[in-house]
Design brief:
The chain is α+β, with helices and mostly antiparallel strands and 195 residues long. It is 16% helix and 29% strand. The chain is built from two helices and five strands; from the N terminus they run ααβββββ. The protein has helices at residues 8-24, 74-88, and strands at 99-109, 117-123, 141-149, 157-171, 175-188. It has a five-stranded mixed β-barrel. Helix 1 (8-24) runs parallel beside helix 2. It is globular. Residues 1-37 have low confidence and may be disordered.
């Protein structure tokens, strides 16, 4: 997404989106599979595991008073452009690079043909990259399915399995991803019902 004129509400949305992604996605086991592990036995990763523990994109903005900035204030526009650059260059968890993994999330199609979708971005929360500013790069996974998936639509929930790689991919409209799974096994995500 291109930064042009961002109101104060957009700054708040950027910070809220990161917080929501990290809080809502904190489920699943804490350990990644060792490289070369069987994909069928790959652990389910929590989205929070994709973020290096030392990375804090909000640190430099903690003492700022966003209420003091008006929507058309050049300082607000500059701050949002800087925040977007920080998010687009967000570091990845290098310990996960090359490991077998499963990850559940929402589909943001990059291709959509009559035969289905083969390439998409996997994001941690509904509306990411479409209705809200994109999440940080370490919260977006570029997925290339081993085969086209029929009946898949934007914001459908899926579970993706494969080898997770640290790799940047920039979509002109949807955001920058910090990870890739290719070729990926894609299945519909069906939440477990409580007993």
């Amino acid at each position: 997404m291109k930064a042009t004129s961002f109101p104060r509400a957009r700054a708040t949305a950027l910070l809220a989106a990161l917080a929501a992604a990290l809080l809502l996605a904190a489920c699943g086991p804490d350990a990644a599979a060792p490289p070369g592990a069987n994909l069928a036995a790959a652990p389910e990763l929590a989205w929070s595991e994709l973020v290096p523990k030392s990375w804090d994109p909000t640190q430099r903005y903690r003492n700022l008073s966003l209420e003091a900035l008006r929507d058309n204030d050049p300082r607000a526009v500059q701050m949002l452009e800087e925040m977007r650059a920080v998010w687009d260059n967000a570091p990845v968890n290098v310990a996960l690079d090359g490991s077998a993994a499963r990850l559940s999330g929402f589909v943001v199609p990059l291709d959509n043909t009559q035969d289905g979708i083969r390439e998409f971005l996997l994001v941690p929360y509904f509306g990411a990259c479409i209705h809200t500013p994109p999440p940080p790069a370490n919260q977006i996974v570029h997925v290339i399915a081993g085969q086209t998936v029929k009946g898949l639509h934007a914001m459908d929930t899926v579970k993706v399995s494969g080898i997770l790689k640290a790799a940047r991919y920039a979509s002109a409209d949807m955001g920058v991803s910090g990870y890739e799974i290719s070729p990926a096994s894609v299945e519909r995500f069906v939440p477990k019902r409580p007993d």
